[in-house]
Amino acid sequence: MSTESTESTTQTGSCPEPLPFPVGPDFRRVTRQVAVRWGNRTVMIGGDAPVAVQSMTNTDTVDAIATAIQVKELSLAGSEMVRITVNTPEAAREVAAIREQLDRMGVDTPLIGDFHYNGHKLLTQYPDCAQALSKYRINPGNMGNGKRRDDNFAQMIEVACRHDKPVRIGVNWGSLDQDLLARKMDENSQRSKPWTAQAVMRDVLVLSAVENAQRAEQLGLPGNRIVLSCKVSHVQDLVSVYRDLSQRCDYPLHLGLTEAGMGSKGIVASTAGLALLLQGGIGDTIRISLTPEPGGDRAKEVVVGQEILQSLGLRAFAPVVVACPGCGRTSSTVFQELASSIQEFLRAQMPVWRLKYPGVESMNVAVMGCVVNGPGESKHADIGISLPGTGETPIAPVFVDGQRVVTLKGDNIAETFQGMVESYVQRRYGAAETVDA
Q: Where is the IspG C-terminal domain (predicted)?
């Protein structure tokens, strides 16, 4: 036994000294890289590109103005690509107008056309639509049956080749290739130990996605213009399908539950499924399919997607506000209100700050409610404040870069601290702007 091993055994008894557990996600799965372009804007999917966030409008595409406005809102929230429904000739006719309106507003976010049932006709009959879109979403499961399906699929791939557009081949749980499913069910019945029907369906999803991607390549579409997805509604099915899919191909993968649901259910389900896959190095672009509440903000799904990636340490989109949950020491709502207003303030500034202050998205701000963890968390943040809890002296120390710089008192603590945050951003991150200039 070596001296090192002896010392290790001596220190810990009969067990070797433990090594620290690794921190962070697994290495990203190696994939081809797909470029989605509009004008001077290029969003890369896969390869060494960061995981991209995308969303989808829920306006009637025939209303070009309303659709363009919502695309702009989603873009400002951080959606790097936006998908729009193209389901009728009237909708297809308006796609070019939507693109023109966005260009006039200075929004260069790539548009993805979502096609079902009649995409082969719409892309062929409306070439302006085909050109104005940056990417097509194709679902082979609802393009007909047999030869008709094959012909319709080939027609869409031919249009993509002609206009030099990438495609996402998206297979859905609710629109599986019934011929392939029937064949695989028959084969399964011949097994000595047949799989469950759910397992066969998961296998068919993956097989359909891969086979259609391979056929697209045979039809002339380069492999670096293909993204795959296999959408399901349940978390465990999602994780199983994508783990399988990731081992059967090297195309970049689009992640998301096909119907996540409303409110906290949709957020939790999406987070649970996507976090497991992203932590395992699987996934190149994501969409959080939340059902909005009546009158709700569509951009919420963009924020949720960003926060999943930021929580996993994969990307940084906006400064993080650390705030305690509150307890019996913090019966005052002052710290809750301040934490909420600071978070809203930071997000509202990000469209400008992202361009003006490089690196600001990685800033940490602490808004704490009492002396237990308040000073410690504030010291660890870039800038933090520890507000007085119930019965504590009504003063609020502020820490900047780990040092206590001032103690705030009075009725204007919230406004003063927000001003300090803004001054800190200008002083620390504005230096990068000056250097670049």
A: 321-422
Asked if residue 9 has pLDDT above 70, the reply is no
Q: Do the first three CATH levels of 33-312 and 320-427 match, i.e. the same topology? A: no
For residues 67 and 59, the answer to whether their CB atoms sit within 8 Å is: yes
Classify strands 226-231 and 261-262 as parallel, antiparallel or unpaired. Answer: unpaired
Q: How many CB atoms lie within 10 A of CB 65?
A: 12
Neighbours of 317 (CB within 10 A): 20
Amino acid identity, position 11 = Q
* Residue 370 marked ligand-binding: yes
pLDDT digits (tens, 9 = 90+) for 327-384: 888 877 888 888 899 999 999 999 899 999 999 999 999 999 998 999 999 999 999 9
In the predicted structure, residue 3 carries a pLDDT above the cut 70: no
Tokens of 54: 């995308």
What is the rounded distance in angstroms from the CA atom of residue 36 to the CA atom of residue 83?
Answer: 12
How far is residue 172's CA from residue 229's CA, in Å, rounded to a whole number? 8
> Residue 215: exposed, middle, or buried by beta-carbon count in 10 A (0-12, 13-18, 19+)?
middle
Residues 6+ apart with CB under 8 A from 260: 266, 267, 269, 270, 288, 289, 290, 291
Helix (H) / strand (E) element for 227: namely strand 226-231
Distance of CA 285 to the CA centre of its chain: 6
HSE of 288, CA atoms in CB hemisphere, 13 A: 32
Give CA–CA dist 326/319, Å, rounded. 21
CA 382 to the chain's CA centroid: 26
129 in a known ligand binding site = no
Q: CB of 36 within 8 A of CB of 108?
A: no
- The domain defined by 33-312 folds into TIM Barrel (3.20.20)
CA 286 – CA 299 distance, rounded (Å): 14
Per residue in 174-200, pLDDT (tens digit) is 888 888 999 999 999 999 999 999 999
CA distance 155 to 149: 10
Distance CA 228, CA 155 (A): 19
Residue 324 known to bind ligand = yes
Which of the following CATH numbers is that of domain 320-427: 1.20.120.530, 3.30.413.10, 2.60.40.230, 3.40.50.1860? 3.30.413.10
Of 390 and 65, the structure prediction assigns the larger pLDDT to 65
Closest CA to 225 of 116, 339, 333, 134: 134
pTM attached to this predicted model: 0.91
Distance between CA atoms of 239 and 243, rounded to whole angstroms? 6
